[in-house]
Each structure stands twice: as C-alpha cells, then as structure tokens.
Amino acid sequence: MVTVGICFCIFNAYFLCLLCHVSSEGGVVGASTQLVLDTGLCSATICLTIILTYQAIGRSVINYAAPLWALVINESSWKCLHSPDYENEALRIATGCHKMAHLDHLQQETKTLPIKSHSELLAKQYWLSCYQSHHLSHHLTSQPAPARNMKGTLSKFDRDVVPLCDDGISEVEQYRSALHNHHSEAVVDAQLNFVPNRVLGTTPPELSSFECYLSRSVCTTLVQLSSGHCRLLNSYKACITAGITDVSPDCGVAPHSVEHLFQYPACLTQLTTQDLWDNPDAVADFLKLDDN
C-alpha cells in the first residue's frame, strides 16, 4: 500500500508539472510567432512553423511516457489537458482564431489529433512494438491478464493490436504497415467525433491550395469566418462589446452572421459559405479583405 501511495503521489506531481508546462507554452509560441511573422513567409508556412513549434515545445512533453500515464489518467485530468488554457492557446495562435472558436475547428484546420486520441495512439503503437521478438518488453505480451483490473495496462489494447500482428512481428515492413493502420484509424475516429462545423453544419472539406497565396491577415480572417466567430461580424462584436447589436450594417437584418454575408439581396454573388474552403481567394476578393 505504501508503494502504491508513493507511485500515486509521484504521478500527481508529474501531471501537475505537465499542466504547468503546457499552460506556459502559449507565451513561448506567441513570442516565436512574432519572429516568424517578421520573416515575410507565406501564410501556410507561418501556420505550419507555429504548429511545429507547439509540437516541439508542448506536445513533446505531453507525449513523453504517454504509454504509461495515458493508461491510468482519469476523465477529469483529460478535461484539464483539453481545456482552453492548455491545448487551445497554441492552435489559436497558429490559426488566428478567437477564443470562442471550438477546439474541434482548430484541430481540423491544423490537422492535429486531440491530446487523448494521440496519447492513446502512442500507447497502442508502443504495445504493437512489444510484439516484435527482439523487443525488451516482448515477454509482457504473453503474460496472462491480472485477476483484478485495478489499473489500466497495455493489454487493454489487445483487441486493436493482436489482429494486426498475428503470432508476432518478424518483418520491419509488417511493423510499419501496422503502425500506419493504427494512425489511420486514430485519424478516422477523431474526425467522426468532431462536432459539425458551426457554419456548414457538417464536416468541413479540405482547404484549397490557393490559400497559400494569400496574406497572413487575409487567411486568419477567412479561418475566423469558417469558425463562425469573426471581427467582421456584429454577431461576434455583440458578444464582447456592450452597445453593439447583432444587426447587419448593410441591410439592418439580424443576425449578422457568416451566412448573411453571402445571402443578403444586395451582395449579388454566387459564392456560398462552402467557398470559404473551396475558393478562399474569390471570397477574399468579394469581401475586400485586403482593405480591412
């Protein structure tokens, strides 16, 4: 009992340190962002650089020993890691979205797996590697299940791992193929669990490659519009500023939403909200974003 208590205290201390590190990474990423913006790189490169900085500074610490702690962490701890103060901050900086933007939208735009999904993926991949005959932990794969399931163990992933490895893994290509299958399954599961996009009401499509030719300020405005919360909309301004009403300044109709930008009678355009992803350069010209 003493040993269990000591291990529990050590894990709690580690988790608290983990939260402190992740919560402080936003300032570091923010400072790095200014350096990247000064380089004059295209918007896509800037976003990718910020995401890579976040993964190197924050996600790398979270990923450390994930096959161990991801097995015993409880739901309240997962919620702490997924809270806006931790995971959202770096992704908001990368995309330029406001705090009101849903975390799922940020992860879809940056093609980032949720922390829980990614940590469990790392645990599955490690357990898969244990099925290699030369692995130091290969003997664990043949151990019987404990009589009482007090804490989660890697064997909980047997249902996902064993069908991919049959009687063991002897070839490198077989191992790499199984790793790829696990990653693909994790991506599909994450996409299925994402909430529908606020603007489209469904899963958003892939972003057009033409976005890389737009400036950083235009791209961030387009991403804000696709999240449903943008500085150009009175529906957003009314939530943060007293005295502003959610009414269109052009026709006086409420609400002043993303959909309204493309639908009010005087706009005379064939563009729709879908074009925020399919045709971002045309939307930028239509909304005159370069002038804002």
Point out poorly predicted stretches.
1-9
Shape: elongated
Q: What is the total domain count? A: 3
Classify the helix fraction into a percent range: 55-70%
Reconstruct the topology from this structure.
Layout: H1 2-37, H2 43-63, H3 66-69, H4 75-81, H5 84-95, H6 103-110, H7 115-130, H8 158-165, H9 172-193, H10 216-227, H11 234-240, H12 258-263, H13 275-278, H14 280-286
Helix pairs in contact: 1-2, 1-5, 2-5, 5-6, 7-8, 7-9, 8-9
Report on this model:
Helices cover about 60% and strands about 0% of the residues. The protein is an all-alpha fold. Helix 1 (about 1-35) runs parallel beside helix 5. The chain starts with a helix and ends in a 6-residue tail after the last helix. The model is unreliable at about 1-10 (pLDDT under 50).
Keyword list:
292 residues; mainly alpha; elongated
Summarize the structure.
This protein is an all-alpha fold. 58% of the residues lie in helices and 0% in strands. α5 (84-95) packs across α6 (103-110) and α7 runs antiparallel to α9.
